[in-house]
């Protein structure tokens, strides 16, 4: 596995692969890898000749009240995960390498950001779109892999690729969960023992909401019932519980629309998100 820290070397690696006709599967991350990331790497390895993993804590997607320096980092552990899951190149640039000066051009996302997490994280997805635009140009992947745990991010990336005609295929992958249903997340380490016991309730509330929705229950009634359920069974504060069309992330009105049921709950030191998507024939991704 090659560890690459410069843009020029990363571009040279990709160019050589392309010259040889090899496909590149790309998994962009901010590090502190867990089993969810590992599943993306495994799928990329199965579907491409080469797998590229990027680890870059992107300062542009942190808001003024979010601590960039506090984001968990453990490169030695991440390196082991990458080695164990067949990564061919690990792109690990410093902030100065990616942003040597204040950017003169950044991206602005106009749709799919005024709901869910984007509603309270102004500029977050602008930062995501900006860094992905750079990474797509640097790495030139054939396919890019994202977990559906952050379904809003997947929706934004789909719009970015489509609108700007990037020659890359977006591959959304199912959320990887603990045995009790809690979605894998680097932020789970910040849960207290009591909060960790409560956390599986989040997924159970999504499952219950999906069942009620498929039974034809009123959306407003479902949301109210699930918020009450979460407040009763956890010590966290419900940030939102929403049922929207997907990937548009707008009010879901038509019965045949693909829908997402999504939530965010703020515990003392960790804000957890999760979701379920339901497709028109009634099946859902659990």
TrEMBL record:
It is found in: Cytoplasm. The keyword Disulfide bond does not apply. Its main location: cytoplasm. The active site is at residue 37. It is an enzyme of class 6 (ligase). It comes from the Bacteria. This is Pantothenate synthetase. The gene is panC.
């Amino acid at each position: 596995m090659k560890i690459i820290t410069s843009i020029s070397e990363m571009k040279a690696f990709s160019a050589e692969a392309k010259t040889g006709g090899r496909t590149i599967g790309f998994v962009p991350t901010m590090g502190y890898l867990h089993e969810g990331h590992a599943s993306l790497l495994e799928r990329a390895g199965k579907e491409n000749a080469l797998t590229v993993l990027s680890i870059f804590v992107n300062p542009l997607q942190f808001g003024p009240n979010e601590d960039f320096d506090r984001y968990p980092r453990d490169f030695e552990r991440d390196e082991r995960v990458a080695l164990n899951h067949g990564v061919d190149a690990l792109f690990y640039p410093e902030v100065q390498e990616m942003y040597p000066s204040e950017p003169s051009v950044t991206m602005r996302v106009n749709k799919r950001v005024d709901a869910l997490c984007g509603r309270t994280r102004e500029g977050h997805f602008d930062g995501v779109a900006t860094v992905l635009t750079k990474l797509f140009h640097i790495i030139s992947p054939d396919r890019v892999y994202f977990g559906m745990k952050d379904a809003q991010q997947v929706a934004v990336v789909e719009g970015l690729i489509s609108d700007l005609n990037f020659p890359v295929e977006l591959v959304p992958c199912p959320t990887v969960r603990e045995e009790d249903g809690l979605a894998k997340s680097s932020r789970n380490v910040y849960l207290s023992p009591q909060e960790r016991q409560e956390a599986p309730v989040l997924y159970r509330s999504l499952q219950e909401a999906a069942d009620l929705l498929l039974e034809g229950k009123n959306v407003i009634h479902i949301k109210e019932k699930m918020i009450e359920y979460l407040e009763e069974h956890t010590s966290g504060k419900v940030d939102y519980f929403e049922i929207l069309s997907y990937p548009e992330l707008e009010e879901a009105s038509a019965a045949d629309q693909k829908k997402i049921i999504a939530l965010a709950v703020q515990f003392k030191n960790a804000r957890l998100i999760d979701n379920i998507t339901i497709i028109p024939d009634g099946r859902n991704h659990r």
